[in-house]
Specification:
Layout: E1 2-3, E2 12-16, E3 24-31, E4 35-41, E5 46-51, E6 55-56, E7 58-63, H1 65-89
Antiparallel strand pairs: 1-6, 2-3, 2-7, 3-4, 4-5
Length: 90
């Protein structure tokens, strides 16, 4: 089983933290000797810490920057549509 120490800074990953968790897109922001700072991408970005020894249920895929950017652009487009709708209401 993989753990968070297997992840590399600057890379993007699709993973499941536990068997019951949803698939999420994360990137590694920083490392310390014992911990790792991660960013989870989705409708809301969230930064969180994990112990480097904490297990990961499944690392599904490592993504390059272009692939991750293409996925993240889908969320940007949704946000743009909401902004347009709000401006139309005014």
């Amino acid at each position: 089983m993989a753990n968070y120490a297997d992840l590399q800074p600057g890379n993007f990953y699709l993973l499941r933290d536990t068997e019951e968790s949803d698939i999420e897109l994360i990137s590694v922001l920083a490392l310390t000797d014992k911990c790792i700072l991660l960013r989870s991408f989705g409708q809301v970005e969230e930064d969180f810490w994990k112990m480097r020894t904490d297990p990961i249920y499944q690392v599904i895929e490592e993504l390059d920057y272009d692939s991750a950017a293409a996925i993240l652009s889908l969320y940007d487009e949704e946000g743009d549509e909401e902004e347009w709708e709000e401006e139309d209401e005014e």
